[in-house]
Structure formats: C-alpha cells, structure tokens
Amino acid sequence: MSILIAAIAFILLGASARWAWWRARVPGLKVLCYHKIGVPPPGSRLKELWVSPARFRAQVKYLLDHGYTTILFSDLKKAHDGKKQLPEKAVLITFDDGYENNYLHAWPILKELGAKGNIFVVHGTIGKANLWHNPASEPWVKMATLAQLREMQDSGVMEYGSHTLNHPHLSALKLEDAAWEMAESKRQLESAFGREMCAFAYPYGDGAYSPEIRAKALEAGYLFDFSFRQGKTPWPWAREAGPIDRLFIRGGDNNWDLALQLTRGESRL
Fold first, then answer.
1. Residues 6+ apart with CB under 8 A from 46
2. How wide is the angle at C-alpha 164 spanned by C-alphas 115 and 250, nearest 5°?
3. So what's the architecture of 25-264 in CATH?
4. Is the four-CA dihedral 178, 180, 184, 186 of positive or negative sign?
5. pLDDT at position 12
6. Residue ranges, the chain, pLDDT below 50
7. Which of 2, 87, 131, 224 is 20 to 30 A removed from 72 (C-alpha atoms)?
8. pTM of this prediction?
9. What is the DSSP pairing of strand 244-248 with strand 30-34?
10. Separation between Cα atoms, residue 56 and residue 104, nearest integer Å
11. What is the pLDDT of residues 44-82, one digit of tens each?
12. CB burial readout 175-205, b (16+ within 10 A) else e
C-alpha cells in the first residue's frame, strides 16, 4: 500500500509540475491566441507557434461540446457598447499575422463546426510572406492573399483586426513611426475590407504596456487593444486599466491544457 501511495504522490507531483490544475479558477474574458495551423517546416525554431489541424479541430470541438460560444470582434464591440450581452461562456478565437494556413486549415474547420474566428492581419505582408522573420533562422511561409481574406470575411466565419503594417517591435521605433504603423494599418485594412477595424494586437506584445505607445494605439481609433501577455482580463473591461490579455495556445497543448487555460488562465507553470 505504501508503494502505491508513493506512486500516486509521484504522479500528482509530476502533474503539478506540468499543469496548473491546482490553481484557483480565474474570471475574465477568454481570448485564445493562435498563430499557424499546420505542420512546422524543416528548420523551424518556433514549432510551438504551429498547431496541427487535427489538434485545432479537437480544441474547437471541445469548446462547442462544453457550452462555449465563439464570438467575433463585432460581437465584442456590441457588448462593450451595451447593444447586446455576451454569452455566458463567450470565447474569442484569435490568430496573429494572417497566414495562408489560416485559410487552408483553420477556416474550413471553423466553418465545418459552426464556430467563429478573428485574425490580426499584418497589412504589409498580405499575399507575401512573414518577412519580419530572418529566413536563416525561421523559414518564411506564405501569408493569405487579399482574395482569400475577403472570402473568409464574406463567409461570416472570420473577422479582422490590425497587427500593424510590417510587424515591427514598436518600442524600437520612434514614437511617431510606431503611431504611423498602427494608424496606417487601420486605414489600409478598412479600405481593403470595407469595415471598421475595432481591434489591434501589438506584435510580440511589444508596447502593450508602454503608456506612450498604447496612447497612440487608442488615438488611432481602435476600441480594443490586445496584448501577448498570458491571462484573462476582467469583463466588463476597464479600457483605461490596460489592454486585453490572451491565452497562448502552443503546438503541444492538448484539451486538458485548453480547459486549464479557459478556467485558470494558464495551463503550465
């Protein structure tokens, strides 16, 4: 019996070191953050940014099977403006950058299952590649074309926000240049898609908690700004208190990780 107890204790200790199941539940808005849906190319050093289509499908199905309602940026805006109430278990699925694999893999899965998603688009690389990466250390992959992005929008399954023009580290720029990256991307995206871009995500999360840079993001006209910091933000949202945090979904995350992200605000220590 003592051996069995010791074995159980060892298993629990190992699980506690890997998962944060023992942490208290955390209230707040649930915003999932994905990047690429597919298989990492040879030589990729950012494999955690890739979620396989099978795993993504299982995660979306988990959400729907457990009573979550996936919403669009426009739904969040209506709730913020008092025009509608968020569903009790609302969740925003977001993708950073606007890769072609979002069109090839994520969109068909969302459409098949009846779910919604949102992409923060880097306007300057539409139809090109992820040019902000050094191809010597991270292979370039294709970005979605304008036609593909419009097709996803027209389906009612995807909406868009801004992720700047060129995906820079905003804090590395002069403040006026950082402001231009944010404001001009909003203008260009609104022209391309014929609708308001009410949401913005800071590339790399850089600048999200800089008062000067954040002030320029809000001056650009974005209602919502999203960080890359792990966590959940209280809703209703106090806009002046800071940006909205997100739940980063890694390539190795399973449905247990997802459940912990949604309830505890994190799955790993």
1. 40, 138
2. 50
3. Alpha-Beta Barrel (3.20)
4. positive
5. 37
6. 4-17
7. 131
8. 0.93
9. parallel
10. 13
11. 999 999 999 999 999 999 999 999 999 999 999 999 999
12. eeebbbbbbbbbebbeebbeeebbbbbbbeb
